[in-house]
Amino acid sequence: MKIAIFGGSFDPVHIGHVHAVIEAKMALDLDKIIFIPAKQAPLKTTSPTEDSHRLKMLQLAVREYDFIEIDNFELGQDGVSYTYETAKYLTGKYPDDEIYFLMGMDQYNNFEKWNHKDELLNMMKFAVMGRAAGDMNIEQPFVPVHQPVVEVSSTTIRERVAKGDIVRHQLNTAVYEYIKEQGLYEA
Question: What are the pLDDT digits (tens) for 94-112?
Answer without folding.
Answer: 999 999 999 988 899 999 9
